[in-house]
Amino acid sequence: MSARSRLCGALLTALAALTTGLCAPAAAHTAPPPHSTVLDGARLQQTQARLHRGDPQLRRAVKALTARADKWLDQGPWTVVDKPRPAPGGDVHDYLSQAPYWWPSQSPTADNPWGCPYVQRDGERNPEVDSGTDRQDVEKTFDSAYDLSLAWYYTGEGRYARKAGQVLRTWFLDPATRMNPNLDHAQFIPCKYDGRAIGIIDFSQSYTSVLDALALLDTGAPGWSRKDRTGMARWNTDFLGWLKDSDFGKQEGAAANNHGTFYDLLLAGLAYATGDEALARRTVLDARSRRIAPQIAADGSQPQELTRTRSWHYSTFDLVAYTRLAAIGRHVGVDLWAYRGPDGQSLFKAVDYLLPAATGAADWPHPELEFLRYAATDVAHAAADAGDVRARKAVPSLESPPGGDLWSLRPAAEQLDSIAG
Question: What is the bridge-based pairing of β-strands 102-104 and 118-120?
């Protein structure tokens, strides 16, 4: 071969290598499995790996997830100190919310600015609860932190992690804007109660998603520091102490409907996240005889939730707590799905009771002010993953929530307000 031929060959080889390098895809973002509370960290890491291999279904799901996350980028951060008036105790750092189903019975006057006394109208939401308190802002804080952290974990785009960190620091950590770790003034009723035990559900229904968001950020998110991790661990420990020891916490723990189930979820979640696995395990174990046996009937119905004007909503709502509690149980060696009560009660039966309406095969036979079929989609997914044959067959007929079905990315049931957007 001539010198000229060798030179041409070498140039062509170099050009091919350069072209290959320029066109090669960027290195995929990888992160270790998070030490998550409800989500299965190992499963998330496996899903991340499948996504990087080009799984088309997961790519579509990530597109839906990032669409949710993108909407949060120019919103917030939110803080408890922004409300028009402080909680009844006078500390602007105390969380405040108003009972949603209580309404004024009089027209407001100078002498009676609230229109007291307030009367209950079950299932009818008073629009006052969405203004003047922290209720909407805390929902946005929880939902945004979760969506943004998941979006960062799967895409590696730092803007999502940095925004999640800003949201969490503002609500929980920054001295000027932080929330005190108590719920002494949740779901107050004007002129009646300065706060109520049942207000704990403002946090118990969604805060375990924040615990998972923290676990995701702790895998190496940009802008999330050791100081942030330490601060949130301290806040969660203090909040767990309040939840266990306060009168409100004890009252909510004694509740015999969805409030008790969600209390257990929050207690077990905080215990697991702060390192008290013995308390987490005991809480999940106790839920068998304290929750499932008395609250789920032999046919799978939930009698106390069926008495509500929104019986479908509350039946699915309660199962969000149960299925998330069962997910925590996996981490501490308890299979809550396997439990059978003295009359055959089980989580599988409770989910199966919803499937005819969830798939559109039959009407829901109980009172419901606003039937949303997709409210049962996540809990049906959870049962299918746990081995429920009927639920697995039902999955193709489930209705996707607004924004798409994200189960493949975050296999843990979200409560209705979050998935409805």
Answer: antiparallel
Alpha-carbon torsion 154, 155, 158, 159, what sign? negative
Asked if 347 and 380 touch (Cβ cutoff 8 Å), the reply is no
**In this structure, how many other beta carbons lie within 10 angstroms of the beta carbon of residue 350?**
26
Give me the torsion for CA of 204, 207, 212, 215, rounded to 10°. -120
Per-residue tens of pLDDT for the chain, all 421 residues: 444 444 444 444 444 433 333 333 334 678 789 999 999 999 999 999 999 999 999 999 999 999 999 999 999 999 999 998 888 888 999 999 999 899 999 998 888 888 999 999 988 889 888 888 999 999 999 999 999 999 999 999 999 999 999 999 999 999 999 999 999 999 999 889 999 999 999 999 999 999 999 999 999 999 999 999 999 999 999 999 999 999 999 999 999 999 999 999 999 999 999 999 999 999 999 999 999 999 999 999 999 999 999 999 999 999 999 999 999 999 999 999 999 999 999 999 999 999 999 999 999 999 999 999 999 999 999 999 999 999 999 999 999 999 899 999 999 999 888 877 5
pLDDT tens digits, one per residue of 4-59: 444 444 444 444 433 333 333 334 678 789 999 999 999 999 999 999 999 999 99
CB 173 within 8 Å of CB 383: no
Distant-in-sequence contacts of 46-53, Cβ < 8 A, 24+ apart: 47/154, 47/408, 47/409, 48/153, 48/154, 51/154, 52/28
Given a contact cutoff of 8 angstroms between Cβ atoms, the answer to whether 39 and 412 are in contact is yes
Whether 219 and 31 have beta carbons less than 8 Å apart is answered as yes
* Rg of the chain taking only CA atoms, in angstroms: 24
**What is the three-state SS of 358-414?**
HCCCCCCCCCECCCCHHHHHHHHHHHHHCCCHHHHHHHHHCCCCCCCCCCCCCCCCC
| Cα angle for residues 315, 319, 324 (degrees, 5° grid) | 160
E-strand stretches of 145-278: none
Place of tokens 């790996």: 49
Under DSSP, the state recorded for 98 is: B
Q: Which of 326, 242, 237, 225 is nearest to 284 (CA)?
A: 326
Q: How far apart are CA 180 and CA 92, in angstroms?
A: 9
Q: How far apart are CA 267 and CA 216, in angstroms?
A: 20
